[in-house]
Write a structure and sequence with these properties.
Elements: H1 9-22, E1 50-61, H2 71-79, H3 88-96, E2 100-115, H4 134-143, E3 158-159, E4 165-170, E5 188-197, E6 202-211, H5 216-225, H6 264-269, E7 276-279, E8 284-289, E9 301-304, E10 313-319, E11 342-348, E12 358-362, E13 367-368, E14 393-397, E15 406-413, E16 416-419, H7 439-445, E17 451-454, E18 457-459, E19 470-473, E20 478-480
Parallel strand pairs: 1-2, 1-4, 3-6, 4-6, 7-9, 16-17, 17-19, 18-20
Antiparallel strand pairs: 5-6, 8-15, 9-10, 10-11, 11-12, 12-13, 14-15
Length: 482
């Protein structure tokens, strides 16, 4: 059930306390993945599920170098079997856990369409230098190499990405006049504007463009944009979280076959995983399977503060470039940062001044945008919120081996919960001034890894301790049980 609570910290702090007193912690309304944007990343309102038709159009400019590969190479890259290594089919099968993929539109790969050098006309000053423009697309539309109009499912004369995804691959090797050392040979682009054929009266939108030398990570990045994915880099911050997500900067290496998975935030918003949701202040311990373990769509952990709400939270996922001997081994995270296993802590919320919506809090000091996963045996400092304030929790990664497909993670919340045996006194909040009167109440309220402090007294009550907790007395002896 999706909660409709408006998240305002001050009133919520009071509300959570009151609900704890009157209802008990176990009955406070639980957050759901929908509260954090699950399955909201859509194009034209359509979720990224099932299949979508895809056509690859080869464009051959007369004065450019010859195509680096034959058409069969691109056919294999985009439509080769998912079981084969290093292709688009396998990449999106693994990242979506089999929930989404592309299928051929018509022959799948068409062309080449032969164009003159002048067909690369530049369109506006802010995009001067980009070779992929409306003029080129218009010429391809008119060439008749592919019947785009037949994919207008709703008959509105607008071909949207949910109806047909179009990838243009050209042999242009343009260089920005402002940066002669920055060739466009291996990169890609995604254009969200409409291009209309006034004679045939139809339009297409959101084309994907790549070079004939673009590698798998570039192609996967641009196709993810066609599903609504967002860039996790900016001109202000460079390449935060690089090599931890395909949506950060791509390596720009010709015919690159290494690749990096999508991050847990994108997968959740695309509807491809359902993280397990826990309170960060409450502390806890969980096993975290590797991102490519198909049997666990709930592999990531989502840690948040019920008082702060869903606009500032953490997504934890275990990433590994390979799992030797495991049936879950996947070739699509081989470009992982430093090719090492580790815990990636995604902090969801904008990087200051950049608009990047999520970045990794990495080793060793939780620097936002770091590309260093937390390795075996690592313990973080206290996690920080977006406003710079410190939480009460640290995250600990239990020791693991490089061939482990699951790791154990603790989030330990440092906090004191007070108990003073005797008649119940309203309100019981677990504070020094308003302690709990029963051992069971204190154990239920103390965070995992926190401290249960007792004022002098005795009680015949007994209870089973089921979580990591420290017990201390304050000011005198305490007797529990008989």
């Amino acid at each position: 059930m999706k909660t409709d609570l408006n998240w305002h910290p001050a009133p919520l702090r009071v509300l959570v306390c009151l609900l704890t007193v009157f209802l008990g912690r176990d009955r406070i309304p639980a957050a759901t993945p929908e509260d954090f944007g699950y399955n909201t990343m859509r194009v034209e309102g359509m979720p990224a599920s099932g299949t979508r038709p895809l056509v690859v159009v080869l464009v051959d400019f007369a004065t450019a170098p010859k195509f680096a590969h034959p058409a069969s190479y691109y056919d294999s890259l985009f439509f080769g079997p998912a079981e084969s290594a290093m292709g688009i089919q396998g990449y999106f099968r693994d990242n979506s856990r089999g929930r989404f993929n592309w299928v051929r539109a018509g022959a799948g790969v068409v062309g080449p369409v032969n164009l003159a050098n002048s067909d690369r006309a530049y369109f506006t000053p802010e995009f001067a230098g980009f070779p992929y423009d409306s003029n080129m697309v218009y010429k391809v539309m008119k060439s008749g190499v592919f019947d785009f109009r037949s994919y207008d499912k709703n008959g509105d004369k607008r071909i949207t990405p949910d109806e047909l995804t179009i990838v243009f691959i050209s042999n242009d090797e343009w260089t920005d006049p402002k940066c002669p050392s920055c060739p466009f040979n291996y990169l890609g682009a995604n254009r969200p504007w409409w291009i209309r054929d006034p004679v045939l009266d139809y339009s297409i939108c959101h084309e994907v463009f790549t070079s004939h030398k673009s590698g798998l990570p570039v192609v996967a990045h641009e196709l993810s944009h066609a599903l609504g994915a967002e860039d996790l880099y900016s001109s202000l911050d460079g390449c935060p979280s690089q090599n931890l997500t395909v949506m950060s900067c791509s390596p720009g290496v010709a015919d690159d076959t290494s690749s990096v998975n999508l991050d847990a935030w994108h997968k959740m918003r695309l509807g491809w995983c359902e993280p397990r949701i826990h309170s960060l202040p409450a502390g806890g311990i969980e096993q975290v399977p590797a991102a490519q373990v198909f049997t666990r769509p709930d592999a990531p952990l989502l840690l948040y503060d019920p008082v702060r709400g869903p606009s500032d939270y953490f997504l934890l996922e275990y990433r590994t470039p390979f799992i030797p001997g495991s049936p879950y081994d996947s070739p699509y995270d081989t470009g992982l940062a430093y090719t090492t296993n580790g815990l990636v802590i995604w902090h969801v919320g904008p990087l200051p001044g950049s608009g990047v919506p999520v970045a990794a809090d990495g080793l060793p000091d939780l620097a936002r945008g770091s590309s260093y996963p937390w390795p075996s045996g690592a313990v973080t400092p206290r996690l920080k919120w977006l406003d710079g304030s410190s939480s009460t929790a640290t995250v600990s990664v239990w020791p693991f081996s490089t061939n482990d497909d699951t790791i154990t993670v603790e989030w330990i919340s440092e906090g004191d919960t007070w108990v003073e045996f005797g008649p119940a006194r309203f309100p019981e909040l677990g504070t020094f001034e308003s302690p709990f009167s029963r051992l069971s109440s204190g154990l239920a309220a103390v965070p995992y890894g926190g401290t249960l402090k007792f004022k002098p007294g005795s009680s015949g009550e007994t209870a089973k301790v089921t979580k990591r907790v420290r017990m201390e007395t304050f000011g005198g002896p305490v007797t529990i049980g008989r």
